[in-house]
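Human: I'm a chemist; would you kindly supply sequence and structure tokens for a protein?

Assistant:
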Amino acid sequence: MRKRERENPCAVCGHYHQLHQTCAICGHRVPDAAAQQTAAQLSAFPSEILPEFLYLGSYDNASRSELLKTQGISRVLNTVPACQNLYKNTFTYHCLEDEQNIPFDDAMNFLEQCERDRARVLVHCMSGKNRSPAVVVAYLMKSKGWRLGQSYQWVKERRPLVEISQAVYQQLHDFERKIFGDIENKDPTLPIFSSSSVIPTFSFGFGKPNDGAALPAFNNTGTTSIFSRPTSEIPQEFTFGAAQIQNNGAFP
């Protein structure tokens, strides 16, 4: 597309294309105002990590009391001391006071109590990307018996914007060693997962550590692939595409 058809290049892809039309070079398209408004509304809700129990979000999510009420959340785990607990008369708060090292044991005690009380809980930090996801990953390791990489993948699939820092990941690696003892993989590097991973379903029945039945469904080798299903029979008279033109342009 010629430059005069758009005054400035697209701020996302850098190519010249009309505002709400698909770019001929990369296929990018700027969403319209309605789509942008829908995305903003969805971002107001925290991410559901374990249905009807564990939610992960930001300080902005924690500040929307009415939305939290609609999701049945009654308790809040604040992982950043600088974040103010806004609705002490409405929610039960617990704050992690250490700003440097995450006190995982303190967080686990609170979350386990929430589990026993069957209370829905929001875990949040300032942006919901680093500190609070680490607490949620640690909880999955301890309560489910899942390893670090497996727990991190579970959280990442449900909240793609998670960006755990290397320093915090090192703390998680140490916590994993504390739970499981000496581990084979001693390299505390952030794992890289394929975006094509299948997101499994989950029930509220929480298993105990090292419970083999509690493993996530995405590692279930017994799951039937859609490619292993029998191929449906196609009628012999059926043809794909338009019929061939014969007899001087007349259809048969």
